[in-house]
Design brief:
homodimer, Rossmann fold, 3 domains, 4-stranded parallel β-sheet, 12 helices, DNA-binding
Chain lengths: 343, 343
DNA sequence: TTTTTCATTTCAATCGGTTGCGCTGATTTT
DNA sequence: AAAATCAGCGCAACCGATTGAAATGAAAAA
């Protein structure tokens, strides 16, 4: 970068014409003679001229960059979302700038500001688990930046959202366990401040109700962190407390894996003593022993849907059209595997 | 974005001063009176003024953005590298722009140009498997953009590189198998056009030689795609051809898992009939049955090292100092697990 | 009173590309 | 031959922030 870049002015100087002519020649403006166009194109190719997007963005107030903030990246779901977003963005001529909040609200705030500063044309975000602070998001929305939330969304914000059908997925998972003959189904629930966690819990509750199984609040155990160790230690606690159970529906696959590992270590057989089902369908969940049943949430679909929604809004606003934010629900699917199927 | 942003000029107008004064006031330039500074800071805070990075970048010929191009993102190794890069970049005030080449050279070329157009201050890249075309990389280097290659590097390019000690890792893996008593070790090798694959093969060969085991070229089977299905089908072929073997060292974990699954399906016991070891240590490899032995390649370390190297070069060139590209080798470690340990 | 000095502030160019408008000279119309 | 038309190109402002140099005005020195 330090060295001077090769600019339109340079082309202009070499050819003894003005840079406006160069600019128009490069985009085949009808005002420019064919001779001039040819000369300009030839030189531009020779010198491998590449336009400076910064200058363009500044001029047009438009960067052709979409921002995306995810809590983690070493995570199949988010990685899939990103690849879905990229696919759509590429096809529409946009680039993607990614920030990782690392599940930290402070980082999320910094990232949001950075995104605004670099004038992304729109922002996609899945929030950190920990916080309820929305001021930074409100602020960026007020400044007119189109925002789409996905997966971990907040109802309070009037923006477009893309979510999986958490309720339905949890309902299917629970129903599946019930149909396998399970009566005492533990739910390892997610953080209560995220709709996602609440919806999954509600799906679980609804299935129990529909099948006339009494709800025992002690069987709903919060696992807000949702990592392997939490799943493990929670399962140890459950077993130590001699809570009677024959199935576990976890808020996510990692927690389910932790619980499964702990149960196996304690000598319980899966799925015969305990059926286990997760949520999210990790790429490798099918390779476990036994393979983990799960609710498939297509990260790619969510990414694609969210990116399209965002671009729709960006374009509407560019044309000064009204755009009413909406929420799209991406279907989830029950994946039955060995961890929950009784022989 | 469409709506006018709140700029320094706006602050200047409201306060009846010039924008240069606003600029200096915001950065506490000594020339500006305290009263003016206070007024400017107050208004800036009130209106939530955020500087336009595009304008800054254009002015300073410096974007504070590092670009990174990876072949895949739904991949623990690359995701870890990215998170390592992000960590370093954040601390140094840089943002990260990510592109995914999807193992396609054309995409890689497009991405490289896009990165240059948005004037990243430096570029990190791990190449696609398929190609040997380096012209786009040469071109960006010629334009003065610092470039660091990691993991999948090319010797032909005189730039900094960060690699794992593939030779040593492969040697350790092979040695480990030999020490477990294995005599007929199959190597599922990687693509030959990448140094990474060649080095691993050489490590395997060196270990065999050191332990006086004859090399059988038929036991070295290329798996250039390196995906699950290739691992599986290759293993089926091997078994069908009745090749005698008691161990498999695969170029990566996914291939190893594919081979392991296929072997299990064919009724072979792991590790008793066949010992298996992979390369790369996937996050979930330890959760398999049996857990997969592997050579740990710390993606995070590679990302951190590569980012630091890139920043070092960027800074040197900013100060017009010379910088000689160098190659850093990140250690790899043998992780022994159930898939290779004989009882 | 005139000249210096100094603290503040403004002016204007700059980064690279875009674009409305005006200018030039040649060709066509009347 | 004078007027109108038009192709082709250049001028200059603009996007938002920075920065060296010049300007302003008031207080201090001569």
């Amino acid at each position: 970068m330090r060295k001077g870049q090769y600019t339109m002015q340079d082309i202009a100087n070499e050819l003894g014409i003005s840079k406006s002519t160069v600019s128009r020649a490069l985009k085949n403006h009808p005002d420019i003679s064919q001779d001039t166009k040819d000369a300009v194109h030839k030189l531009a190719k020779e010198k491998d001229y590449q336009p400076n997007s910064l200058a363009l963005s500044l001029r047009h107030n438009k960067s052709f960059v979409l921002g995306i903030i995810v809590p983690e990246i070493v995570h199949d779901f988010f990685a899939n979302v990103i690849s879905g977003v990229q696919k759509v963005a590429y096809n529409e001529g946009y680039n993607v700038m990614i920030c990782i909040s690392n599940e930290s609200t402070e980082q999320e705030i910094v990232d949001t500001k950075a995104m605004f500063s670099s004038r992304v044309d729109g922002l996609l975000i899945s929030r950190t688990k920990e916080s309820n602070d929305l001021s930074h998001l409100k602020s960026i929305v007020n400044k007119g930046v189109p925002l789409v939330m996905f997966d971990r969304v907040s109802e309070e914000l009037n923006v477009s959202k893309v979510i999986t059908d958490d309720f339905q997925g949890a309902y299917m998972a629970t129903e599946h366990l019930i149909k396998q003959g399970c009566k005492n189904i533990i739910h390892l629930s997610g953080p209560d401040n995220l709709a996602i966690g609440r919806n999954r819990k509600n799906g679980y509750l609804a299935a129990l109700k529909d099948y006339n199984i009494a709800v025992d609040e002690n069987m709903i155990i919060p696992c807000p962190k949702g990592d392997l160790d939490e799943g493990k230690s929670t399962m140890y606690d459950i077993i130590d407390q001699k809570i009677e159970f024959d199935a576990v529906f976890a808020n996510n696959d990692v927690t389910a894996i932790g619980a499964m590992n702990a149960a196996k270590e304690k000598g319980l057989s899966i799925p015969n003593d305990v059926s286990v089902i997760g949520f999210g369908d990790w790429r490798l969940s099918q390779l476990l022993d036994p393979p983990l049943s799960s609710i498939e949430q297509s990260g790619v679909d969510i990414g694609v849907t969210a990116a399209k929604l965002l671009l729709e809004q960006i374009r509407a606003e560019e044309k000064d059209e009204d755009f009413t934010p909406r929420t799209e629900v991406v279907e989830s699917h029950l994946i039955k595997r060995g961890s929950s199927i009784h022989n």
